[in-house]
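Q: What residues go here?
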């Protein structure tokens, strides 16, 4: 008989083998990775250009994003509407996204329409129109987005945390949409210059999952991507390390019922040897619903609906981040509890916690490769973080080998309370009088745009 009063225990680690990854190299030097999936006659394709907002000139923030939303608004002699109709007639779709370091062109297509879909991508990449009226329309959309986000405390907190943890002098932490002042001054000529300076010469790679085999894929890629750059690398700005101080920044939202809290510090690369130990440790600390942080702030204290921690990465470095929003009157108490848990995770992790975390992560891992989009997103990590091709097939083995000492060392090495950036967005009358007890090296009040108002 099954005792339904007791939750079932997971006692075995998951097993997983990713389908074979094959390399493709075009004659122009472009490198690709592909996985053949023959069950369905469809393909998912992602072109990755090493072009992002870190390349924007001073005073031109938001330019990479604006270029990404404009590049398919008319191209190759076709209007925006005609391009959209062509994709719809083929049953295909395209999504274009710009981040700090990359621009992604993601295609979904039926197998027999993939050649025609790639032909449309070739037009978008090589001969965009950049019409003035399209520019003005998309610029207005961005301005409306920025106006809306200015009134969203969670968005303000996210934006300010990234800017401050990377340091205001490094564009790798600047908001991709840009700021209102810069967007107002951008022109269509700026977009055209950005495209000509970077997209035409930026390093290109691609990833693919679908029913075409490697040979068929290479023939089509040679035909439609043959004039892109596979080897040139654009020089990116040098990173300026911010001061290693315990810094607090706050934005006043009078009478706000909640305080948005963001707290964290810089860490190393995604491919560092202790990555797996960080994943396991983070799961215990704040990476799942029954984590220590969430249990303390939500279940024990009732301050919040949820609290999470994560490690987030750029190409060459990343950051540790804790995210939550708490009842305004409990802001200081919540900070006490957070710093207590950050200290505790460095001092004790039980064998039971460790094993439960490893089993939970391992059981979820295969589900990250179920869809075609998940496959190409996972493959893109090889180019973004310079990972070895056997990485995913060895993931669970490395995960299983993490010890209690490994997890404790990951916490000690990467959770650095004395170097943390703390961002609070809420009613300052609820928390200002409690700052002194935390020993912050710097306390700065900011406006909604991140500009300093005063220092304490």
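A:
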């Amino acid at each position: 008989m099954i005792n339904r009063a007791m939750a079932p225990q997971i006692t075995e680690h998951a097993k997983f083998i990713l389908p074979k990854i094959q390399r493709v190299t075009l004659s122009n030097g472009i490198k690709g990775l592909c996985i053949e999936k023959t069950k369905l006659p469809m393909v998912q394709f992602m072109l990755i250009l090493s072009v992002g907002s870190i390349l924007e000139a001073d005073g031109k923030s938001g330019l990479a994003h604006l270029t990404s939303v404009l590049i398919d608004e008319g191209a190759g002699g076709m209007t925006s509407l005609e391009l959209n109709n062509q994709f719809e007639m083929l049953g295909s779709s395209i999504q274009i996204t710009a981040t700090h370091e990359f621009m992604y062109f993601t295609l979904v297509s039926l197998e027999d329409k993939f050649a025609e879909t790639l032909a449309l991508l070739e037009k978008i990449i090589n001969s965009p129109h950049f019409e003035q009226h399209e520019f003005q329309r998309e610029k207005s959309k961005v301005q409306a987005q920025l106006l809306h986000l200015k009134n969203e405390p969670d968005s303000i907190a996210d934006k300010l945390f990234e800017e401050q943890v990377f340091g205001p002098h490094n564009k790798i932490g600047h908001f991709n949409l840009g700021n209102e002042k810069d967007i107002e001054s951008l022109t269509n000529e700026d977009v055209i210059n950005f495209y000509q300076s970077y997209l035409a010469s930026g390093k290109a790679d691609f990833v693919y999952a679908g029913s075409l085999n490697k040979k068929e894929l290479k023939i089509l890629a040679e035909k439609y991507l043959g004039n892109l750059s596979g080897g040139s690398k654009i020089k990116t700005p040098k990173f300026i390390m911010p001061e290693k101080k315990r810094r607090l920044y706050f934005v006043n939202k009078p009478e706000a019922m909640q305080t948005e809290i963001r707290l964290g510090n810089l860490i190393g690369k995604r491919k560092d040897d202790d990555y797996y130990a960080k994943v396991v440790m983070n799961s215990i600390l704040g990476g799942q619903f029954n984590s220590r942080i969430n249990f303390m702030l939500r279940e024990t204290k009732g301050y919040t609906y949820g609290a999470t921690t994560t490690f987030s990465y750029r190409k060459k470095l990343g950051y540790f981040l804790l995210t939550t929003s708490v009842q305004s009157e409990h802001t200081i108490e919540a900070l006490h509890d957070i710093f207590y848990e950050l200290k505790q995770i460095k001092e004790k992790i039980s064998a039971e916690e460790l094993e439960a975390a490893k089993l939970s992560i391992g059981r979820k891992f295969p589900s990250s490769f179920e869809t075609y989009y998940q496959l190409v997103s996972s493959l893109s990590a090889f180019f973004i973080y310079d990972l070895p091709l056997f990485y995913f097939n060895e993931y669970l083995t490395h995960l299983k080998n993490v010890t209690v000492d490994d997890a404790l060392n990951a916490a000690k090495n990467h959770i650095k309370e004395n170097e943390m950036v703390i961002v609070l967005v809420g009613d300052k009358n609820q928390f200002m009088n409690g700052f002194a007890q935390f020993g912050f090296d710097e306390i700065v009040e900011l406006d909604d745009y991140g500009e300093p108002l005063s220092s304490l």
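A: Context that may help when evaluating the design: The chain has two domains: 22-225, 247-455. Residues 365 and 396 are 8 Å apart (CA to CA).
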